[in-house]
Amino acid sequence: MSNANANVPEHPMEKLLRMERIPHIWCPTCGIGTALSCFITALEKFDYPLDKVVVVSGIGCTGRVAGYIKLDSFHTTHGRAIPFATGLKLANPELKVVVFSGDGDLAAIGGNHLIHAARRNMDLTVICVNNFIYAMTGGQTAPTTPLTANSSTAPYGNSEPPFNLPLLVGSCGAVYVARWTALHIRRLANSIGEALNKKGFSFIEVIAPCSTLYARRNRLGTGLDLMKFYHDNSEIRHGAPLEELDIGFQQKIIVGKFIDRERPTFLENWNNWLSQKLGDKFVPYGVAPQQMQLRKAG
Amino acid sequence: MKADPIGVLTGEHYLDGDHACAEGAIAAGCRFFAGYPITPSTEVAERFVARAPFVGGIFIQMEDELGSMAALIGAAWGGKKAMTVTSGPGFSLMMENIGLAAMMETPCVVVNVQRGGPSTGLPTMVGQQDMMQARWGSHGDYEIIALSPASPQEAFDYTIKCFNLSEKYRVPVLFMMDECVGHMTEKVVIPRAEEIDLYPRRLTKKPPEKYWPYEYGEDLVPDMIVAGTGYRIHTTGLTHDERGYPVMSPVAQNKLVKRLCDKIRLNADDIIEIEEDQTDDAEVIVMAYGITSRVCLPAVFKARKKGIKVGYIKLITIWPFPEKRVRELASKVKAFVMPEINMGQVVLELERCVAGQAKTYHVPHAGGWVHDPEDIYKVIEEAVK
Fold first, then answer.
1. Counting beta carbons within 10 angstroms of the beta carbon of residue B186, is it exposed (0 to 12), middle (13 to 18) or buried (19 or more)?
2. Does ipTM come in above 0.90?
C-alpha cells in the first residue's frame, strides 16, 4: 500500500513491509524494529527469490515480526517457532526459512527445540532478539536476564545465572553463530546476510534495548542511554571463545562472529545415508522431480 | 483424485492396527511424519519410517510431542500431507498446537492410540479415556473431527478418510484408536490405487493480489496456499480477519470462532459415519466405538437369542457426534446402553442428545482390559425392563 500523502516518498523498505499493519506495536526506542530493518536490508541484497523466503515467529514482542514482514509469515505458539519452521523446511526444502523471535520464546519455553535444531543442523536461520526480559507480559525474568538485574518476578534482583546463547547453540552444533547489538546496524545486516547464505543452522543474537521495562526497572535511563551503553561497552572479538561470552549486569558485551563452519544438514544426512544404504530403491527426498525421474529411469 | 500407486501396497496383508494405520497414511499421500515415541503408538512411526525412503517421504523424530505437533502444522503449510501419532500423555502435550492447527485451519492428522490413564497410567494396556480430551483438549472454542477404528482393516480405511476430511474441512482430524486395535493383527485388504479416492488440497485459483487467506465461500472453508508460491500471506494463532491479520475485537472473535465451529457443525451430515444393525425394531440400543464395538457383540447376540429387541450402533465418527440420528432413535426406544473403556465420557454426549426421551446406561471400565460381554449383557437386560 502506498503512502497516503503523495508528497512523502515511499520508504525504501515498504516493499517488504505490510504497510497496512503500520504503525507497529513496539515501544519507542525498542530494538526489534532495528533488527527487522537490518533483516530487510540483508534480504534486499540476498540473491534468492524472496517469494521463497518464509518467516516464522513465536510469541512475544519479537514474535510480532511475522505480522509486519511482507513475506509468507507465520505467527505461531509460544516456544514452537523452531519446530514449526522445521516442518515447513522439510515439507519444502526449496524454502529459506527464517525464525525471528525473542530470547524467552527461543531459549526458555523453546529451549529444547533450539538445541535439537542446532544438533540436527536443521537448515534454518534463527534471529534471536535478546532484550534481557519478558517484555510483552510486563517485564518478568527471562533465561537471559543478567544476574542481579531487576525484573517483575525478581523484584530484589535476579539470583539465577543467565544463558550464554552463543555457547549454548555453538556447543550443540550450529554452523554459524554471531552476536551484535542493535547499535551495530551494518555489521548486523551483513551478518544476517551471511547467515541467510549459510546452509545449516545459523544463529544470530541481537542485543536490543527495552527501555519501557528492562531499563526502567533497572534505572538505566532511556533507550538512548542504553544505546550509549552499547556504544561504550561492546567489544568486537570475532572468533572469541564461546565460554567468554557471558553477559553480566551492565558489563562488557562481546560481539562478533564466533562460529562459521560446515556440517551436513539434517536433509543431506537423510539423503546421503539412505541412498548409501538402500541404493537405487531409495527415492531421495526434496530433490527436484526431474532429477528424481532421471534417477528412476537410469 | 486417486491415490499415487507408489504408496499403495495393493494386496492382502496380515497387519496390526498400527501398521495398517501407517499404510493408510502412505496410501492417502502422507509424506511427512513428525513424532515422538510413546507406547502403544510407536509402531505406526516405525512402519512409516521404514517405508518413507521408498515413497519419497520424510520422517523426523522430534525432541517432544509439542515440537511434533508444531512441525506438522509447518509441514502442512509447506504443502505436505502430514501426520503424527501419540498416546495419552503425548496427546496432552500436543493440545496447544492442535488449537493452533484449528485456528490456522491447517489440514493434518493426529493419531492417538489410547492406553489407560490418567498420567502415565497403563502404557501397554488399553483405554478409551482421551475421548473428551480429543473434543475439548485445547483451550478456547473450536471444532475438530475425530474417528475411531475397530479393526486393522478399519485402521487402514479410516486413516485415509481422516486425511480426506482433514483436507476437505481444513481441520485437524484426530484418529482415536485404542491399544487393542493398535496391537491386534488381522487380515487387511489394501485396494488398488485407482480404487482409493483422495480429497485434494483446496488450493486457491486466485492470483496473489486477489487472494485473502481466510476469505470463505458457502461451505465456510477458505481455500489454501502453499508457502513459497508468491502469495506472501500472514497467518497467526491470534484472532484474525479474512486477511489473516490480527484483530483484537469481540466482533472479529465472534465471526471467526463461530465460523470455525459452524464449518464442522453445519456439515455434520457429510462428516458423520456410523454403522447400524437391527435398530428398526429395537427397544434397547447398544452404542460403542473402537474395540468395545466388537466386545459388546456377544452380549448383543445373547440378548437377541433371549428375545430382547436389541439394536447396535457402531460409531466411526465420534466428533461431531451423530446427534440427529440419536434424537430420532431416542423417541422410539426404551434405552441406550453404552460400554466404554472409561468412567463415562462419550456417554455424556449420548445423554445430552437423548435429552430424557429414553434411559441411558453407561457400562464403565477403567482400562487395562476390555469388558466382559456378560457385564454388558446384564445392563441390556436391566435396560429393557
1. middle
2. yes
